[in-house]
Automatic annotation (TrEMBL):
This is ABC transporter substrate-binding protein. It comes from the Bacteria. Residues 58-286 form the Solute-binding protein family 3/N-terminal domain. InterPro entries: SBP_3_CS, Solute-binding_3/MltF_N. It is found in: Cell envelope. Its main location: other. It comes from Phreatobacter stygius. Keywords: Signal. CDD domains: PBP2_MidA_like (cd01004). Gene3D superfamilies: Periplasmic binding protein-like II. Belongs to the bacterial solute-binding protein 3 family.
Length: 289
């Protein structure tokens, strides 16, 4: 090798080393400029969704979106609330966007079975009869509560104490079922039954209570806390909460692949503290697992 060739060779090596160092420096500078939250997101292990959902890039949730602070529409008619953010976060851990389908409560399970949605992101109580038709992933707890007006003289420690009273319940909910069971007991005992007013949504039950169309309503502890918080001078709880129960995401029976992916996503959300932050943000303390 002559002198010119040797010199040329050495210069080529120096240029290559300089180029590599520049690439490394650029990468380090880029990493330094990325916010910590984004770096943490990069560090999260992506959980693989079923192939069909991965191909679409979207998961579809059915929900009533009428149960604040769990799920409701903001002033711009966008879904928001604890369950909306939790469902969105679960989807993000699988690399998916979310499509929301709003339905009445009684239509949720039929829509899931008809494959109109991939999952029910809803305050669904985990009951044996429900587990016979859908699979469920627990994500919170809730109970039942009686609510009346601030000026009411009503005193009740159970649904049976509402004998002869006009009471509203959302159609197809657990409190609806419990009220029907109370009426069966009252009838068997020869006492006046509860005068049940069955309405499509929780919001409508509170509207009727506010306007004096009913004397009392039955709802979840979550909804009671929310609406009483909005109008503490108009509404008050009566008696203690009852019927504390787990609530869960609903899935088509036997859809184990999606169920496992969503369960792993939820567990990651609990482990890294995101779940706790959502509970605190939406004042859901006492409803966490």
């Amino acid at each position: 090798m002559d002198h010119k060739t040797s010199l040329s060779h050495r210069l080529g090596r120096l240029r290559t080393l300089a180029s590599r160092r520049a690439v490394v420096a650029t990468a380090l500078l880029g990493a330094a400029l990325i916010p910590g939250g984004i770096m943490a997101a990069f560090a999260q292990q992506r959980i693989a969704p079923p192939a069909a959902l991965a191909a679409k890039g979207t998961i579809t949730y059915c929900a009533t979106i009428d149960n604040p602070p769990r799920a409701f529409h903001d002033t711009q008619q966008r879904p928001t609330g604890f369950e909306v953010e939790l469902g969105t976060e679960i989807a993000a851990r699988m690399g998916l966007r979310v499509n929301w389908v709003q339905l009445k409560f009684v239509g949720l399970v039929p829509a899931l079975q008809a494959r109109q949605c991939d999952a029910l992101m809803q305050e669904l109580f985990i009951r044996p009869e429900r587990l016979e038709v859908i699979d469920m992933i627990p994500f919170s707890r809730t109970g039942q509560r009686i609510v009346t007006t601030k000026t009411s003289t009503l005193r009740a420690s159970s649904l049976d104490d509402l004998s002869g009273r006009k009471m509203a319940v959302p159609n197809g909910t657990t409190i609806h079922t419990l009220a029907l069971e109370a009426n069966a007991r009252l009838k068997a005992a020869g006492r006046p039954e509860i005068n049940l007013v069955v309405l499509p949504t929780t919001t409508e039950t509170f509207q009727q209570l506010a306007t004096g169309q009913i004397e009392v309503l039955g709802t979840t502890t979550t909804a009671a806390s929310y609406y009483i918080g909005l109008r503490p001078n108009d509404f008050r709880p009566e008696g203690n909460p009852f019927g504390l129960i787990l609530t869960g995401i609903g899935l088509q029976k036997g859809n184990g692949e999606l169920g496992e992916a969503m369960k792993r996503s939820f567990e990651a959300i609990v482990t890294d503290g995101t779940y706790r932050k959502l509970i605190e943000k939406w004042n859901m303390q006492g409803s966490e697992l």
